[in-house]
Design brief:
Elements (H helix, E strand, L loop, with lengths): L1 E3 H11 L4 E4 L6 H7 L6 E4 L3 H15 L3 E5 L2 H16 L4 E7 L32 E3 L6 H13 L5 E7 H4 L2 E3 H7 L13 H13 L3 E5 L1 H5 L3 H11 L3 E3 L14 E4 L6 H8 L3 E5 L23 E6 L13 E4 L2 H15 L7 H22 L8 H11 L5 E4 L3 H9 L8 E2 L10 H11 L5 E6 H6 L3 H8 L4 E6 L4 H11 L8 E2 L2 E2 L4 H7 L3 E4 L3 H14 L3 E6 L13 H5 L13
Parallel strand pairs: 2-3, 2-4, 4-5, 5-7, 6-7, 9-10, 9-12, 10-11, 12-13, 13-14, 15-16, 15-17, 17-18, 18-22, 21-22
Antiparallel strand pairs: 1-8, 19-20
Helix pairs in contact: 1-2, 3-4, 3-16, 8-12, 10-12, 14-21
């Protein structure tokens, strides 16, 4: 039996359990859209820009733990989506990008929108630096095998995006349906590598003999759905848990063993505890620059003399930035189960560190007390600490928070409690401005019964305001909270501190701060828009928005105050050698 590839592709996606496809039309992919129009199982989420589609697909994959699907047009569609796909790649988010291409019989003739300056029909190679693999389907009969490999690769090992580039005539070719049935016989679950007992025992004995051991949790803990296993190990051995930005929430922020985020936006206490540890068990972390204070041993980590146990699904990360005493390639969920079993065997009564736990509790109390004045301030424009405090007070414990960059990422990492593992989505590796707004769309589509908040700056919201069109058309009830300081605030504070100017970083007209009326823009898209007029107005507006179950934009005027930092970032020494200068407040 013969059938069109476009029809069989949709049936394949249905059989894989795909329920949503994000994307944008183009003349190269409308055969697939026509096939999707007949599907009763898959909902197409139409967007106004491919970057919005890519970030929404990213948020969806973070929420489901499965590869999302992004449908794109060729050249400008691919380049528009590239930022979002690269963001997913650097945060290890599984995604299958399916893109149309020029017809095979026109390769090299420079048909409409072909990129062939260096090789014929080579536009798909634009993605090679950041996807796990890029295929071009030149033979129709190979399409079923390629799409099956694409999903398997996206979700296996260290997850990430892949690209399947399809010449448009291939979508309209007929092939034998048996080729599709053959690949659908594959298992959808592949066993992941674990730890052997001997290696686990070596690790646990080292931690039991240590005087000041620490768990260092990265985003890999959450990707592996291993938060519960990590918590049980930490509790049995009384191991303090520090974390990266991407590891935030792996241990709830009200847990007695939580230390907090390390690095540039970490606190002196947290960084000092990591620096003085004799053994660190690192789980699913790249040891990225911001988390490690540019790897300078005067601030966050000293390895050596600290000895490192590192477990990661990606062998390339073992020993990349710090030498390991014990390294293992393993799935964290499986590995932590073995570690916990061995720990209970070697230390059946567990370990108690009551003095340390009390000290950590006192430090957390002191830190919150230090922020209390700002958190309660009635100042206008609002203090960023007050915005975060009001939001946390009314936000459900399990709500999904999608951040962007600036205060809504760095300040949240430092000061905003996350209580449910996997409930904060932030652009870590690529630090992409404009991520938070569309990522929240994908998260809400995936988890319609959860409250989803996009906490985003005015700079970030201005990147992708057309996300509101999709929210209105598809009834996606995200609440956008715009921390509006009329500037690219973090960069403005950086430039002001080092160069005594905010040139190119603040939004102004005739020398005065300026901002679009974002509430009016929201209403123009059919979405409710609220402009906050005083600090006292924010909390009631947030509570009402969350109850409404409708998409709502809340625009909050905020003072451009820098996120406090006790850590270090080497760029400061590049700008102002020896001066130890960070950021300053500006009047944006």
């Amino acid at each position: 039996m013969q059938d069109l590839i476009s029809n069989q592709l949709v049936k394949y996606l249905e059989a894989r359990g795909v329920r949503h496809v994000f994307g944008l039309c183009g003349h190269t992919n409308i055969a697939v859209l026509a096939a999707l129009s007949k599907s009763r199982k898959i909902r197409f989420i139409n967007t106004r820009h491919e970057q919005i589609a890519a970030h929404a697909a990213d948020g969806y994959a973070r929420a489901t733990g499965k590869a999302s699907v992004l449908l794109s047009h060729l050249s400008p569609g691919l380049t528009n989506a590239a930022t979002g796909v690269a963001n997913a790649a650097l945060d290890s988010i599984p995604m299958v990008v399916i893109a149309g291409d020029v017809p095979t019989h026109y390769f090299g003739k420079h048909p409409h929108q072909e990129v062939n300056l260096h090789a014929d029909a080579s536009q798909y190679e634009i993605y090679r630096p950041f996807v796990k693999r890029a295929w071009r389907v030149d033979s129709p009969h190979l399409f079923p095998e390629i799409i099956e490999k694409a999903f398997a690769l996206a979700e296996s090992g260290r997850p990430g995006p892949v690209l399947v580039d399809v010449p448009m005539d291939v979508f309209s070719k007929e092939i034998d349906v048996a080729l599709w049935k053959r690949v659908q016989a594959n298992s959808r679950e592949i066993a992941r590598p674990s730890l052997d007992d001997e290696t686990a025992e070596t690790m646990i004995r080292a931690l039991l003999a240590a005087k000041a051991p620490i768990i260092y949790a990265g985003g890999g803990v959450l990707l592996a759905h291993a938060a519960d296993e990590m918590r049980e190990l930490a509790e049995h051995l009384s191991l303090p848990v520090a974390h990266t930005l991407m590891g935030k929430g792996a241990l709830p922020d009200d847990h007695p063993l939580i230390l907090g985020m390390t690095g540039f936006w970490g606190t002196k206490y947290i960084n000092a505890k990591c620096r003085s540890a004799d053994w660190i068990l690192a789980l699913g972390t790249r040891f990225s620059e911001a988390d490690c204070s540019s790897w300078e041993d005067a601030y966050t980590f000293r390895m050596p003399p600290t000895k490192l146990i590192q477990i990661d699904i990606d062998p390339a990360e073992i020993g990349r930035n710090y030498p390991v005493a014990i390294g293992a390639v393993a799935d964290l969920k499986a590995a932590l189960r073995v570690l916990l079993r061995v720990a209970r065997k070697l230390a059946p009564k567990g370990v108690k560190r009551d003095k340390l736990v009390a000290e950590m509790a006192a430090n957390r109390t002191k830190f919150v007390a230090g922020n209390r004045k700002a958190m309660a301030s009635d100042a206008w424009p609002m203090r960023p600490e007050r915005i975060l405090a009001d939001l946390r007070e009314v936000m459900p414990r399990d709500a999904i928070l999608c951040t962007d960059v600036g205060w809504n990422k760095n300040g949240v990492g430092q000061q905003f409690p996350i209580y449910t593992p996997g409930s904060i989505f932030t652009p870590g590796g690529f630090a992409t401005m404009g991520f938070g707004s569309p990522a929240a769309l994908g998260a809400k589509v995936a988890l319609p019964d959860r409250v989803v908040i996009a906490l985003i700056g005015d700079g970030g919201f201005g990147q992708n305001p057309a996300a509101l069109a999709t929210a209105f058309e598809e009834d996606i009830a995200v609440v956008w909270v715009i921390m509006n300081n009329r500037a690219y605030g973090t960069i403005a504070g950086l430039e002001a501190a080092h160069y005594d100017t905010t040139f190119g970083t603040v939004f102004e007209k005739h020398g005065k701060p300026w901002s679009p009326d974002y509430a009016a823009i929201a209403r123009a898209y059919g979405v409710e828009g609220v402009t906050i007029g005083s600090a006292a107005d924010l909390k009631p507006a947030l509570a009402k928005a969350m109850r409404s179950k409708k998409p709502i934009v809340i625009d909050v005027n905020m003072k451009n105050e820098p996120v406090p930092t006790d850590g270090h970032w080497n760029i400061m020494d590049i700008y102002s050698p020896g001066k130890k200068v960070h950021h300053v407040a500006t009047d944006g």
